[in-house]
Amino acid sequence: MRPIPIEFHIGPLVVHTYGIGLAVTFWFGYRYFAYRLRKAGYSDRWLAGTFVWIVVSAIIGARAVHVVANLSDYTSNPLTVFAIWQGGLSSFGGLALAIPTGLLSARRRCPSLRAAIAADLVTPVLVASWALGRLLGPQLMIAGGGKPTHQWFGMYYAGEIGRRLPVPIFQALECAAVFGVLMLLEHRIDKAVRPTGVVTAVGVALWSLSRFFDEYLWLPHDVGSLPIEVAGLVLFATGTAFVLWRALGARHAKRPLLGSQDKDAPSPVSAGSRT
Predict the structure, then answer these.
(1) In the chain, what is the straight-line distance between the N-terminal and C-terminal CA atoms, in Å?
(2) Phi and psi dihedrals of 140, rounded to 5?
(3) Can you say whether residue 221 is alpha, beta or left, with left for phi > 0 and alpha for psi between -120 and 50 degrees?
(4) Which pLDDT value is given to residue 200?
C-alpha cells in the first residue's frame, strides 16, 4: 500500500497537496467566522483585511516555533526553514501570534466588537478549522503519521517506514467532538446573553487536553514534545479554572451559569447598529 501522494504536477508546476489543504482550511475559517459574525449581529465587512494578517501571522508563528523546537534539523541547511510545504507548523506558535494579531486588527477595524465576545465567536471556528486542517494538512504531508503500528487502521505516510498511527484522523475526530461540545454549550446559553468567555475557556481547555494526549500517546516523542505537553496541561488548567470561577460567581449571585446575563455583552441588535 502506497502513501497518499503529497504532490502532483501540472506541466512544469509542482503542486503540493499540503499547501492546497492549508488554503482550503483558511478559506473555510474565513467563511465560517464571517457567518458567525453576521449571526451575532456584527458586520463582517472589516474581516477580509484582518484575515490576511491573521493568515500571515499564523504561518509565521507556527513555522517559527517549529523551527526553534527542532533547530538541529535546520542548522545544516537553513534554506529548508522556508519549505513549509514539507510540513512543520506548530499549532501553539500559530495561535500565539495569530490571535493577538486578529484581536488588535479587529479592535481597530470593528471597535464595537469587544475582544472577549470576539474570542467566544471565533473559538468554535478555530476548533472546526483545526478538525478540517488535520485532514487536509498533516494527512497529506511528509511524515504526517504517528508512532509505528501493526493495527489494521495503520496508514502509510511519505517519508516514514511502515504503518503509522493516523494521528491527523484522530485529531480531526477529537476536534469534531470538542466542536460538538461547544455548539451544545452555545445552544443552551443562547436563550439569554452569553456569559462572556465561557465558550472560549471550554474550547481552550478541551482542545489543549486533546493536544496533550496526542503528544503523549500517539506522536513520536522528539525535542518539541515535552513543551507541547506542558503547554497543553497549563492551558487546560487555565481554561478549567476560568469556567469554575464563572460558575462560582454565578452561584454567589444566586443565578445559574447557563443562561445568565452578562451586563457587559451587547445584544445582537445594538451591536449590529453600531457597525
Answers:
(1) 55
(2) -120, 25
(3) beta
(4) 94
Q: Where are the domains of the chain?
A: 7-273
Spatial separation of the C-alpha atoms in residues 9 and 18, rounded to whole Å: 14
Q: Tally the C-alpha atoms within 13 A of residue 263's C-alpha that lie toward its C-beta.
A: 1
> How many angstroms separate the Cα of 178 from the Cα of each of 12, 88, 98, 124, 181?
42, 24, 21, 9, 5
Cell of 127: 476548533
The angle formed by the CA atoms of residues 71, 76 and 77, to the nearest 5 degrees, is: 95
Q: Cell triple for residue 217?
A: 500517546
CA–CA distances in Å: residue 59 to residues 17, 93, 98, 112, 168: 16, 9, 8, 28, 19
Residue 7, H or E segment: strand 7-10
Residue 205, C-alpha cell as written in the block: 481547555
* pLDDT digits 0-9 by tens, 146-201: 899 999 999 988 888 889 999 999 999 999 999 999 999 988 775 454 578 899 99
Q: Round to whole Å and give the CA distance between 198 and 7.
A: 41
Contacts of 11 (CB under 8 A, 6+ apart): none
pTM of the predicted structure, to 2 decimals: 0.80
Amino acid (1-letter code) at residue 3: P
Contact 41, 271 (CB under 8 A): yes
Q: How far apart are CA 59 and CA 151, in angstroms?
A: 34
pLDDT at 260 over 50: no
Average the pLDDT over 205-219 and give the result. 91
pLDDT by residue (tens digit) across 87-127? 677 777 888 888 899 888 888 898 999 988 899 999 999 99
